[in-house]
Amino acid sequence: MTGFADILIGLSLLIGALFTFVGSFGLLKLDMPMKRLHGPTKAGTLGIGALLMAAMIDSFLSGHGTIQHILIMAFLFVTAPISALFIAKVHIHTGTCQKPPQPSEDSQWATKAVVDTQET
Amino acid sequence: MARSVLRRLLPHPALTLILILVWAILNSSLSLGTIVFGAILGILIPQATVAYWPDVPRGIRFGKLVSYTLLVVWDILVANVQVAWIVMTKPNAKMKSTWVNVPLDIKTPEAITMLAGTITLTPGTVSADLSDEGHCLLVHALDAEDADAVRDDIKQRYEARLKEIFE
Amino acid sequence: MMSPEVFADYALMIAFVAVSVSQLLAMVRLVIGPGAGDRILALDTMVINGIGLIVLVGLYQGTQVYFEAALIFAMLGFVSTVAYARFLLRGDIIE
Known about the structure:
The complex is a heterotrimer.
Chain A: H1 2-29, H2 33-36, H3 38-61, H4 69-94, H5 110-119
Helix pairs in contact in A: 1-3, 3-4
Chain B: H1 2-9, H2 13-27, H3 32-49, H4 62-89, E1 98-103, H5 109-121, E2 125-130, E3 136-141, H6 147-166
Antiparallel strand pairs in B: 1-3, 2-3
Helix pairs in contact in B: 2-3, 4-6, 5-6
Chain C: H1 4-32, H2 36-61, H3 67-90
Helix pairs in contact in C: 1-2, 2-3
């Protein structure tokens, strides 16, 4: 039983290490600012999720089991899209990406609309 | 009468339950003291924040919400492997990243928030902006042959389910 | 064939190396930029990798005392990312 849990911990650690590395590697490798957003916000989040899973299994193995780590996991999964959205808005605002197409229904994207009202 | 008192005491019943649960997990205990203090927090915090979130979402189908969450978790796992493969092996010049314009059928803010979060967490796409009246979502795709296919996939796979849950 | 304990120990070492290397890669992106958005993203990634390192240290020492540190690190990282992005968007954080 202990051996099985150890194997689970090891596998979670390896998966987490792999995805964390892929996230940061993508951050360095990709060539356009909007493309770079894809690496860390997702692969990184899943990687940390797997590392926390390993820590959680280890806490049950060592006797005083706790599922506190789920809180960090949930927090990261809720906040990662918000961080990504804000950084994407910064890219659109500063113009460091391709110009997005016009929205099909309303007049303008929210980020640009704010700039327009500030300028006029 | 009793109903309106209850509504004033607990403006967000689901938020109250979540706060009690989070407090219990944070203390990693289920003793009476923990639950009582969690309930005090769970009553005070929604009352303090109700001014910023006045329109309580009603009529959420929780059974479908659970199955939707499981679907999204599965998609995150599968699609993360695909994106990791793309990032590690595909040269930069061969990636066709495009903007995708997704017109929205859902209207409630909670549903749009969940859709945007889902799009960002399922790899290959990041939700980047909302149009000024909230009828369109701007999505960036990392490696997509066809922008229309990405849009149809998002609309069928996630938006239709969210519309069933929230509206 | 190695025993499960030895496998978990090796996996812990590999994870330490991988997360540390990721932290260095993110730091390179922080230095070379080129834009402010890239730097915010690099900082956000470094915070996430830092949480990973804290969790790994907790695993290595076999204690739970680092849990609060990781949780507070996650919260502060998120708030600082949003504050920095908002500052660039509006030139003002609290309106």
